[in-house]
Fold this protein.
Amino acid sequence: MSIKDRVIAIIAEQAVLDPSDVSLDNTLDDLGIDSLGLVESIFAIEEEFDITVPFNANEPSESDFDISSVSTIIAGIDRLVKDQS
Protein backbone atom coordinates (compact mmCIF):
# COMPACT_ATOMS: atom_id res chain seq x y z
CA MET A 1 0.00 0.00 0.00
CA SER A 2 1.22 3.49 -0.81
CA ILE A 3 1.58 6.26 1.76
CA LYS A 4 -1.52 7.88 0.27
CA ASP A 5 -3.60 4.71 0.62
CA ARG A 6 -2.39 4.08 4.16
CA VAL A 7 -3.15 7.64 5.31
CA ILE A 8 -6.59 7.54 3.67
CA ALA A 9 -7.30 4.21 5.40
CA ILE A 10 -6.41 5.71 8.80
CA ILE A 11 -8.51 8.81 8.21
CA ALA A 12 -11.42 6.73 6.91
CA GLU A 13 -11.28 4.48 9.97
CA GLN A 14 -11.38 7.51 12.25
CA ALA A 15 -14.35 8.93 10.31
CA VAL A 16 -16.07 5.52 10.25
CA LEU A 17 -16.16 5.65 6.45
CA ASP A 18 -15.05 3.43 3.63
CA PRO A 19 -11.71 4.63 2.22
CA SER A 20 -13.43 5.12 -1.16
CA ASP A 21 -15.61 7.80 0.50
CA VAL A 22 -12.57 9.91 1.37
CA SER A 23 -11.39 12.30 -1.34
CA LEU A 24 -8.15 14.27 -1.43
CA ASP A 25 -9.92 17.61 -1.20
CA ASN A 26 -11.96 16.65 1.88
CA THR A 27 -11.23 18.51 5.09
CA LEU A 28 -11.35 16.65 8.37
CA ASP A 29 -14.49 18.65 9.19
CA ASP A 30 -16.07 17.40 5.94
CA LEU A 31 -15.44 13.87 7.18
CA GLY A 32 -16.85 14.53 10.65
CA ILE A 33 -13.50 14.23 12.42
CA ASP A 34 -13.39 16.42 15.53
CA SER A 35 -10.33 17.53 17.51
CA LEU A 36 -10.16 14.26 19.46
CA GLY A 37 -10.43 12.30 16.20
CA LEU A 38 -7.64 14.43 14.77
CA VAL A 39 -5.36 13.60 17.68
CA GLU A 40 -6.20 9.90 17.38
CA SER A 41 -5.52 10.05 13.62
CA ILE A 42 -2.13 11.71 14.21
CA PHE A 43 -1.20 9.01 16.77
CA ALA A 44 -2.27 6.26 14.34
CA ILE A 45 -0.25 7.86 11.52
CA GLU A 46 2.81 8.17 13.77
CA GLU A 47 2.54 4.48 14.68
CA GLU A 48 1.92 3.36 11.10
CA PHE A 49 4.94 5.18 9.68
CA ASP A 50 7.18 5.27 12.79
CA ILE A 51 7.48 9.06 12.57
CA THR A 52 6.79 12.06 14.78
CA VAL A 53 4.28 14.50 13.33
CA PRO A 54 5.10 18.10 14.32
CA PHE A 55 1.57 18.91 15.42
CA ASN A 56 0.44 20.56 18.66
CA ALA A 57 -3.16 19.62 19.41
CA ASN A 58 -3.42 22.45 21.92
CA GLU A 59 -2.36 25.03 19.32
CA PRO A 60 -3.26 23.57 15.90
CA SER A 61 -2.96 26.96 14.17
CA GLU A 62 0.63 27.27 15.47
CA SER A 63 1.67 23.96 13.92
CA ASP A 64 3.99 23.67 10.93
CA PHE A 65 2.01 20.62 9.83
CA ASP A 66 -0.82 21.46 7.40
CA ILE A 67 -4.05 19.62 8.21
CA SER A 68 -6.29 21.70 5.94
CA SER A 69 -7.20 18.74 3.71
CA VAL A 70 -6.56 15.06 3.16
CA SER A 71 -4.10 15.88 0.35
CA THR A 72 -2.05 18.26 2.52
CA ILE A 73 -1.90 15.66 5.29
CA ILE A 74 -0.67 13.05 2.79
CA ALA A 75 1.93 15.48 1.41
CA GLY A 76 3.17 16.24 4.93
CA ILE A 77 3.42 12.56 5.85
CA ASP A 78 5.21 11.85 2.58
CA ARG A 79 7.80 14.55 3.40
CA LEU A 80 8.28 13.26 6.96
CA VAL A 81 8.79 9.68 5.76
CA LYS A 82 11.30 10.79 3.10
CA ASP A 83 13.15 13.00 5.60
CA GLN A 84 13.43 10.07 7.98
CA SER A 85 15.00 7.72 5.44
In short: The mean pLDDT is 92. Helices lie at 3-15, 35-49, 70-84.
